């Protein structure tokens, strides 16, 4: 096995995408194994790879890590993206948790019944524009820095950038009332590691389509 982290998940965004974003932002190359059948998933459980019988699974530094939050905390700490002290870490955690609430809505959207799609899309738009993005607009404006915590690139910035792009895919003008976030998005897009991740051919996954939804349901069906 090479020294690269090894990511096991489906060939799509889901709960692995923020992990891909964080590794890419840290400039870390990784390998991926894609689950395509229920049998592959069941074998991982049988072999004792999945502590709670759930993916994502990330093999890194001799560990088989599960639980998205734990994986990302480890990566952020390892690559110095987790603040300089406990107070900064607490802020990063707060921001990340908030963004995760918004991303959970986006994560579940492709699995909405057809008659609920429009209502769920309105919920995403309303939450982003009225609850979540105003918080980050205010944070950036108040301390006048390029990044959310201190003046240093952190896990929180990576999560926010992923969320902005994910919401914009569904609501293209969502940042129209948020000038600070527009500037933030431009600066983040031009950071070398993130710029590379946004290029075609990178490990970044496209928006979920019908095939991805079908694969998820097939692999994880009870």
Keywords:
Glutathione_S-Trfase, 222 residues, globular, single chain, GST_alpha, 2 domains, Glutathione S-transferase Yfyf (Class Pi), Chain A, domain 2, Glutaredoxin, four-stranded mixed beta sheet, alpha+beta, transferase, glutathione transferase, 4 strands
Describe the structure.
- Belongs to the GST superfamily. Alpha family.
- Its EC number is 2.5.1.18.
- One of its GO terms (biological process) is glutathione metabolic process.
- The chain has a four-stranded mixed beta sheet, with helices on one face.
- β3 (about 55-60) and β4 form a beta hairpin.
- The chain is of the alpha+beta class.
- The protein has two domains: about 5-80 and about 200-210, Glutaredoxin (3-Layer(aba) Sandwich), CATH 3.40.30.10; about 85-190, Glutathione S-transferase Yfyf (Class Pi), Chain A, domain 2.
- About 55% of the residues lie in helices and about 5% in strands.
- The longest helix has 27 residues, at about 115-145.
- It is globular, with a radius of gyration of 18 Å.
- It has nine helices and four strands.
- The two termini are about 30 Å apart.
- α4 (about 85-110) packs antiparallel against α5, α4 (about 85-110) packs parallel to α6 (about 155-170) and α6 crosses α7.
């Amino acid at each position: 096995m090479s020294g690269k982290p090894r990511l096991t998940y489906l060939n799509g965004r889901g709960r692995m995408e923020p992990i891909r974003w964080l590794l890419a932002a840290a400039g870390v190359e990784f390998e991926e194994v894609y689950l395509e059948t229920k049998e592959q998933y069941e074998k991982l459980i049988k072999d004792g790879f999945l502590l709670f019988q759930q993916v994502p699974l990330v093999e890194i530094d001799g560990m088989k890590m599960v639980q998205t939050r734990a994986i990302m905390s480890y990566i952020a700490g390892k690559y110095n993206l987790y603040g300089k002290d406990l107070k900064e870490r607490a802020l990063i955690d707060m921001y990340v948790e908030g963004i995760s609430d918004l991303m959970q809505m986006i994560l579940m959207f492709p699995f909405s019944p057809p008659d609920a799609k429009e209502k769920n899309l309105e919920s995403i738009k309303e939450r982003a524009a009225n609850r979540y993005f105003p918080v980050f607009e205010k944070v950036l404006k108040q301390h006048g820095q390029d990044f959310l915590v201190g003046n240093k690139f952190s896990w929180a910035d990576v999560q926010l950038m992923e969320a902005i792009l994910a919401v914009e895919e569904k609501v293209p003008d969502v940042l129209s009332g948020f000038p600070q976030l527009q500037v933030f998005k431009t600066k983040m897009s031009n950071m070398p590691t993130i710029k590379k991740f946004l290029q075609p051919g990178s490990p970044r996954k496209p928006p979920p389509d019908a095939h991805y939804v079908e694969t998820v349901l097939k692999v994880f069906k009870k």
